[in-house]
Design a protein that fits this description.
The chain is an all-alpha fold and 802 residues long. It is built from ten helices and three strands, in the order H-H-H-H-H-H-H-H-E-E-H-H-E. Helix 2 runs antiparallel to helix 5.
């Protein structure tokens, strides 16, 4: 921006310089023409530059006084110059008018340049304000957009949680409804079963009464009854021993299962505690890292403020040194001008005797010029002889050109020095920006490394969790395998016990049915209690997850508020530093202007004290002052441009830091959202897996029930008629008898075992039914392998009369 400003000012400065050179050439040409036209030497040649109307009027008054009658002059009149000297010189009038026109043009040009500079500065200020407002609006929109995105995601998460809660509630309601219906169906089936058993028991009691009445008539039947009673006693003892053994085994298995469940719960609680401890440690580490980052940012801000203060102090010291050097230079110039004035005065004193009248006229004009104003003093030169004055004029012209060339060279040197200083400042700014960028890259690398470490820790924690789950699943599988092995062993023992007690189990069938019913009720109550416990644990876990989510949301809101407070404090500190810099700059400029005004006032007083002898020196000093003012204006413009560039760089750096902070906050929020989403996904996956397992279990149960129904249907349709067709009715068997037989087969239908599990009351009938089943071997088997597997062990009702 500073370079463009300088380039925009080079055109007007070059044009002004060209105009000055052209005017100087024209003036020299006119001066030489006037000298060639004058054949006699002119005693009074005025080469002073008249810059305003009062000076023109004073010159006219002087010319009128010179043309006054000689009677008014003293006893020793000064001889009048011959020829044109007695009348006003038209060349001098034209020269005065030309100089006035040039001065007006110069003043107009300066006003136009000042106006252009002011308009440009105003436009630049307006543009900067518009750009700053636009950037602030963009930053505000970005912040509002980020906040809206966070709020939207939070609302979506809440909505998703509510939908999942509703879905879970609906599923639980459906499960409760289904459980109630199943309980109702089981109760109805149990009632029907009880009624059937009571009817069967009543029929069995009647049959037993009839049998006992018939056996009372026969001794053989009594002997058989005694043997049966003994066998039943033995069977009861064996059954009681088996029942006691079974009860002990069930109690042992229940205790082992309870111990395994408690161990699993303790391991789960321990794993949850470890995970919570790790999470808290990670949270503490993250908070510590954030605190360290904030402290580092504050230290960097303090370092930047200190560096800016040092730079401002250095700039003030340089300005002070520059002012002192300027004052020394001015003092040297004033001493040089004073010495020149003294030499000029001595020269004039030597020439005063020869040109007394001219000296008195010039003295009068000089006194009038002193009275009017220091800035209005007119430099007049004394010409001696034509050749000498022409040589002096030529020498002055050459000196002026050399001075201009020297001033131009000095201005160029100053411009180059300013350019070098600007380039040096830009290089330093670039180095500083590169260092800050390196620091930012290092900080980002550290943050990425830390994020990678956290991700690694999370992955390790996840791996440990998965390993724990796998170990838990493996332990559960091993426990299930042990349970199945125990179940198989138990079933084998039960089969052996049933095989041993099959003949005498008739009397204890009702007791076993009651025991099974009670065990089923206990199992149902235990399952319901387990379901309630699981539901309570899930509700507790859900509440803990919701509390954790709320805590994280509150933590995020608190961190966001702290970040905004830090950002606001940093902006206020920057604004205060900028205001202080502006105030210091303004104070330095005011001091500089005051020093310059003081120097100008002293120069004016000294100029008043000096006279016409210093006119030429003052003209040169004025020219040098103008060039110096232009150089100072350029330097000031360059300094302002540098200051604006530095302010712009600081503002851009602040905006970039703010954008990075916002991006970092957004990234952290996105990572937290990802973590929350991943947790929700894992939770949802676990819930889906649980539901899938329940659904699969339900489907397996339905399939198993369907298979059992198909197996019963196959047995009643194909196996039962085959067995009944091969049955030989005992001679003493009564009509209407029936029994329930349990059959164990091989894969090809070969009967391995056939025993009556519910007697008809007639042992002969029961044995004949078992013989019929064994005769029917191999039994017809279905093509469906599931139904065939179910028929490996099945029961059916043998009722030949039905």
């Amino acid at each position: 921006m500073a370079d463009s400003r300088l380039r925009s000012l080079r055109g007007p400065f070059a044009l002004a310089l060209v105009l000055h050179i052209v005017l100087l050439i024209l003036f020299a040409l006119k001066f030489e023409a006037s000298q060639r036209s004058a054949q006699v030497p002119q005693p009074d040649i005025i080469e002073a530059v008249v810059l305003d109307d009062p000076r023109i009027a004073a010159e006219a008054e002087r010319l009128k006084a010179e043309t006054a009658p000689p009677a008014e002059i003293g006893p020793e009149p000064v001889p009048e110059p011959p020829g044109p000297a007695s009348t006003p010189n038209p060349e001098e009038s034209r020269r005065a008018q030309q100089i006035a026109a040039e001065k007006a043009a110069e003043e107009s040009r300066r006003q136009m340049e000042a106006k252009k500079l002011a308009d440009q500065a105003r436009k630049d200020e307006q543009r900067r304000k518009v750009e700053a407002a636009a950037k602030e609006r963009a930053a505000e929109e970005a912040r509002e957009k980020a906040e809206a995105e966070v709020r939207r995601k939070a609302a979506e998460a809440r909505q998703k949680a509510e939908e999942e809660a509703k879905a879970r509630a609906a599923a639980e309601a459906v499960a409760r409804k289904k459980a109630a219906e199943e309980a109702k169906e089981k109760a109805e089936a149990e009632a029907r079963r009880k009624a059937a058993e009571e009817a069967k028991a009543k029929a069995a009691a009647e049959a037993e009464a009839k049998r006992k009445a018939a056996e009372a008539a026969r001794e053989k039947a009594e002997a058989e009854a005694r043997e049966k009673a003994e066998e039943e006693a033995k069977a009861r003892a064996a059954a009681e021993a088996a029942a006691r053994k079974k009860a002990a085994e069930e109690a042992k298995e229940k205790a082992e299962a309870e111990a395994r469940r408690k161990a699993a719960e303790e391991a789960k609680a321990k794993a949850a505690a470890e995970a919570e401890a790790k999470r808290k440690a990670a949270e503490a580490a993250r908070e510590k890292a954030e605190a360290e980052a904030r402290e580092k940012a504050e230290e960097e801000a303090k370092a930047r403020v200190a560096a800016e203060a040092a730079a401002r102090k250095k700039a003030a010291e340089e300005a002070k040194e520059k002012a002192e050097a300027e004052a020394r230079r001015k003092a040297a110039e004033e001493a040089k001008a004073k010495a020149a004035a003294e030499a000029e005065a001595k020269r004039k004193a030597a020439e005063a005797a020869r040109e007394k009248a001219e000296a008195e006229a010039r003295q009068k004009a000089e006194e009038e010029a002193k009275a009017r104003a220091a800035a209005e003093a007119v430099a007049r030169k004394k010409a001696a002889e034509e050749a000498k004055e022409k040589a002096e004029a030529e020498a002055r012209r050459k000196a002026a050109e050399e001075a201009k060339a020297k001033a131009a060279a000095e201005a160029e040197a100053k411009r180059k020095a300013a350019e070098a200083a600007r380039e040096k400042a830009e290089a330093e700014a670039r180095e500083k920006a590169e260092e800050e960028a390196k620091a930012r890259v290092a900080a980002e690398a550290a943050a990425r490394k830390k994020a990678a470490e956290e991700a690694k820790e999370k992955a390790e924690a996840e791996a440990r969790r998965k390993a724990a789950e796998e170990a838990k699943a493996k332990a559960a599988a091993e426990a299930e395998a042990k349970r199945k092995a125990a179940e198989a062993a138990r079933e084998k023992a039960e089969a052996e016990a049933r095989q041993k007690a099959e003949e005498e189990a008739k009397a204890r069938a009702a007791a076993e049915a009651v025991a099974r019913k009670k065990a089923a009720e206990e199992a149902k109550e235990k399952a319901e209690a387990e379901a309630r416990r699981k539901a309570a644990e899930e509700a507790k876990a859900k509440a803990a997850a919701e509390a954790e989510a709320k805590r994280k949301a509150a933590e995020a809101a608190r961190e966001k508020a702290e970040a905004e407070a830090r950002q606001k404090a940093e902006e206020e500190a920057k604004a205060r530093a900028a205001a202080e810099a502006v105030a210091r700059k303004k104070a330095a400029e005011e001091a500089k202007e005051k020093a310059e005004a003081e120097a100008r006032r002293k120069a004016a007083e000294e100029a008043k004290a000096k006279a016409a002898a210093e006119a030429e020196a003052k003209r040169k000093a004025a020219e040098a002052a103008r060039e110096k003012a232009e150089a100072e204006a350029r330097e000031k413009a360059e300094e302002e441009a540098k200051a604006r560039a530095a302010a712009e760089a600081r503002r851009k750096a602040a905006e970039e830091a703010k954008a990075r902070a916002m991006a970092e906050a957004k990234r952290e929020m996105e990572e937290e959202a990802k973590v929350i989403a991943a947790a929700e996904a894992r939770k949802k996956a676990a819930e889906d897996a649980r539901r899938k397992a329940e659904l699969e279990e339900q489907i397996n149960n339905e399939r198993r029930e369907q298979t059992e129904r198909e197996a019963n249907k196959w047995a009643n349709r194909y196996i039962k008629p085959r067995v009944e067709g091969l049955w030989l009715k005992p001679p003493a068997a009564r009509g209407g008898l029936s029994c329930i037989i349990q059959v164990r087969t091989l894969g090809d239908g070969t009967v391995v075992e056939a025993r009556v599990v519910k007697s008809s009351g007639d042992a002969t009938f029961d044995r004949s039914a078992e013989s019929a089943v064994k005769k029917a071997s191999p039994l017809p088997m279905p093509s469906d392998p599931r139904v065939a597997a179910e028929l490996r062990s099945f029961t059916f009702k043998f009722d030949p009369s039905g």
